[in-house]
Amino acid sequence: MIPITTLSRALRNCLLILCLGLSFVSADDERFQALALELTTVKLAQTQPVLEKIAETEHPVLLQLFQTMVEGDLYYHDETLELLSVERIDGEYVIKNLLSGEVLPIDRDITTKIRVNNRLRVWLRGAIAQIQLTADDASARLAAVRSLLERYDDDSIELLLSLRADEPNTKVRSAMDTVLAMNTAENSADTGARVASIERLSDSLEPDVRNLLVELSYETDAPVVAAEAQRALERIEGRVNFFGHVDTLFFGLSLGSVLLLASIGLAITFGVMGVINMAHGEMIMLGAYTTYVVQLLMPNHIDASLWVAIPAAFLVSGAFGVLIERGVIQFLHGRPLETLLATFGISLILQQLVRTIFSPLNRQVDTPSWMSGQFEINPVLFVTLNRFYIFVFALLVFAALVLVLSKTNLGLHVRAVSQNRQMAKAMGIRTARVDALTFGLGSGIAGIAGVALSQLTNVGPNLGQSYIIDSFMVVVFGGVGNLFGTLVAAFTLGIANKVFEPVTGAVLASILVLVFIILFIQKRPKGLFPQKGRAAE
Amino acid sequence: MRLSPSSWFKRSGEPGAVVAPFVGLLLLVTLFASVGNLLFTEGSVFHVSTYTITLLGKYLCYAMLALAVDVVWGYCGILSLGHAAFFALGGYGMGMYLMRQIGDRGVYGNPILPDFMVFLNWEQLPWYWFGFDHFGFALLMALLVPGLLAFVFGWLAFRSRVTGVYLSIMTQALTYALMLAFFRNEMGFGGNNGLTDFKDILGFDLQSDTTRVALFAITAFCLSLTLLASHAIMTSRFGKVIIALRDTESRSRFLGYRTERYKVWLFVYSAVVAALAGALYVPQIGIINPGEFAPLNSIEVVIWVAIGGRGTLVGAVLGALLVNYAKTRLTAIFPDAWLFALGALFVLVTLFLPKGLIGMAGQWRARRQSGQHQNQSVEGQS
Questions:
Q1: Its topology with respect to the membrane (chain B) (predicted)?
Q2: Which terminus of chain B, N or C, has fewer Cβ atoms within 10 Å?
Q3: Are A337 and B164 an interchain contact pair (Cβ–Cβ within 8 Å)?
């Protein structure tokens, strides 16, 4: 959230400068300047009337002025008398011109603070609330109302009551109602009204509402209110619990999409071709490092870097895959255990290669701005954007792969070779070429997975190792040679992991899932969806 | 030319052909090394440093682990990628005994609780630590628990006919799960740091030269014993069935053998040998931590066996000794190069040396013999 707010603040400043530039000679502006000058000389006791007059100008910089003042950061320059904001950031004072936002290289000694007392602060908060609550932007109004949830007073309630009728946005209006109901439930003298308000509040998931209800449930003066509050709390708890489960489900789906991405390439090389590729994790790692290198090459275009990294990672990992297939695996055809050992050796070499080139330390891969942040479904349920995009991305990659295998010529050849190599050869399919391309395809997809994983985890030489066992589990659990089995298995295991996690802790959850798969394979050695018919052994 | 797998075992199957002389050689070297360390002072040509003794002891433990893998992989076709789990469990059993022997000499001076438990504010010893202050009980547990685990795992897996690559990946998952479990502090095995700071074993100081030589000699003795026992098993009726079911399991089953029982008992035997190796390893190295469970360790063992020549017993031992010696030397000279070398070994051995060094020597000898034979027949004709 922070980057977005800083961004919007920067934008607002730009707009301010623009506005100031355009309307520099307007009468309002002149009046504002005069009042601002007055602010620097007026006595503390006389400040409020001046501020009231300033508020009347409705100058665009008002909100910032009041906010700076309420924080006690408002200063003025001793000589030019211009208004300044002085903020302490990382132990250093940053002095800015309040109107232009321009950072001034001056010393704090030649500035004087404009003093505020508690009475002024109360007035200022009200004024700020008024400005925010009447903002043109609905989301700004919503934010202002929600900030009132935490702390409201008679003035803000009065203000809300006056604004409530004219509020066009239903979301803002409902938030206003919540604040008003909180006020009634807390302060009203009429027990009936309080009970009705509490009932109204039982729909809300806001943490502040819950805190208030907990307080009210201990109220001994009015047992009816306490009982009603208790009931409302239980109802809210029930809903919070429900959304907690939904949240677990989201996390499970997110982990599932990561597992799907990591294992989908393996579903091709192991599932379709039957090659045990222990270097699969390293193909993922190469993809992640490709992302890192792409970002190094285009440091000023991080937002676009992923779009370059995806095809680049596919090509890099795919090329390594073809190389491994041609160089080693083709000679070990039909000897799965030897293939396992040889590809394990390759994985060691690749890890050490990366360690030698990029250092054994983790590398920083930046997240594009469009992937950071989150969207809020309700006050207790958030979805972070990067996880959401990766979920969508995993499904897209999966769909693309299914299409390639079922609709293209290459897919036809791959299936033919995996079903009956000799017959495919007899029909004129160049099996060696198909093998290399299939392996390249599986490895390339692992590389794409690496791009996605670079956004979630550390990019280091051991990145691939942490996924290799999980990936094999997913493919084996889903049934070798069955892409949809892989899909189902990935999401099942992801959700299972996250369901266990709150009860047992993360490590024990993954142990339990491993043990579960080990036992499951004993029962159904061919996985969830075993191959049937001629393709089966 | 592709030989059928069974043809490489016939020669090594000859009773006592290689194993007995090898055991003799092993014991002789052990004797010389021990005497060299204890009787000759530094500076003498015959002197063997304690560092070397410990290193040799470590290699012999690895050799025993390789032997365990060879028994199941070479003779039964079960490629276990999880034998380090049995090795480490055996090590932990011994480590627990050594931990209890520290007594009140730990940093916190608690006579009952090991240091890490005091550090974690544990009130009392967990139930599974009871009895580990007795050497006999600890050793029994160190062998019994891995054996039991192998039995349960093998029984489940072989009964439902999980074979080949699936089994390999399952064993790898097993050791991975155990590694994750042992990393947890709540398990009561010292978490990340494992068990260390051992003082003495059966009252003998672990740092003294005599104890170290004794441990080394015991390891050599145990290795010889397991070699002979494995050889006896493989040349027995039981071993013949094992080889038969490796080559065609379904046919053996049709002939009436309960193949899964044979496999389970072989797997348990192998696990116990691995556990014994682990139990001997820990007092010599002085530490056991969850890193020993790492899947990489198990796979490394497989490559030792592959280099030496699988299904030859002696080959596994030779492979373990050679690779570990190379590792010690290489990591000292080029620390970064070791993983490159290991990786290359995996690739090159599987591509060009499918039968290992012993197999290559056998092939070479067979070619020479057939050459002589041809010469003789040529002479006979003339």
A1: Multi-pass membrane protein
A2: N
A3: yes
Q: Which chain B residues touch A if contact means CB-CB below 8 Å?
A: 79, 153, 156-157, 159-162, 164-166, 168-170, 172-174, 176-177, 180-181, 183-184, 295, 299, 302-303, 306, 336, 339-340, 342-347, 349-351, 354
**Nearest-CA distance from A341 to chain B in Å?**
6
**Under 8 Å between Cβ of A213 and A232:** yes
Q: Is residue A464 classed exposed, middle or buried when 0-12, 13-18 and 19+ CB atoms within 10 A define those classes? A: buried
- Are A523 and B160 a contacting pair at CB < 8 A? yes
Structural domains of chain A ordered from first start? 31-132 (no CATH), 133-221 (no CATH), 247-536 (1.10.3470)
Which residues of A, range 263-292, sit inside 8 Å of B by Cβ? Answer: 276
In this prediction the pTM is 0.75
User: What is the number of helices (H) and of strands (E) in chain A?
Assistant: 21, 6
Give residues with Cβ within 8 angstroms of B49, minimum separation 6.
B37, B42
Residues 6 or more apart whose Cβ sits within 8 Å of residue A457: A463, A466
The conformation of residue A530, written as its DSSP 8-state character, comes to -
Residues 6+ apart with CB under 8 A from A15: A60
Report how far residue A412's alpha carbon sits from residue B368's, in angstroms, rounded to the nearest whole number: 50
- A522 vs B157: CB contact, 8 Å cut-off? yes
The answer, for A522 touching chain B at a CB cutoff of 8 Å, is: yes
Q: Which chain B residues touch A344 with a CB distance below 8 Å?
A: 299, 346
Q: CB B183 to CB A507 under 8 A?
A: yes
DSSP annotation string for A197-244: HHHHHTT---HHHHHHHHHHHT-SS-HHHHHHHHHHHHHHHHHHHHHH
CB-based contacts of A509, cutoff 8 Å, min separation 6 = A497, A498, A500, A501, A503
CA A255 to chain centre: 14
Nearest to B162 among A339, A353, A525 (CB): A525
Does any CB of chain B come closer than 8 Å to the CB of residue A521? Answer: yes
B184·A347 Cβ contact <8 A: no
* Cα-only R_g, chain B: 22
Minimal-distance CA residue of chain B relative to A517 = B170
A94 strand-pairing partners: A87
Does the structure's ipTM exceed the value 0.85? no
Question: A472 — alpha (psi -120 to 50), left (phi > 0) or beta?
Answer: alpha
CA distance B24 to B228: 11
Read off φ and ψ for residue A523, nearest 5 degrees. Answer: -80, -45
**CB < 8 Å to A515, chain B:** 177
- Burial bucket for residue A432 (CB in 10 Å: 0-12, 13-18, 19+): middle
Q: Residues of A with CB below 8 A from B157's CB?
A: 522
Interchain CB contact of A32 with B (< 8 Å):
no
Distances in Å between the alpha carbon of B143 and those of B94, B130, B133, B272?
10, 16, 16, 5
Would the CB atoms of A342 and B347 count as touching at under 8 Å? yes
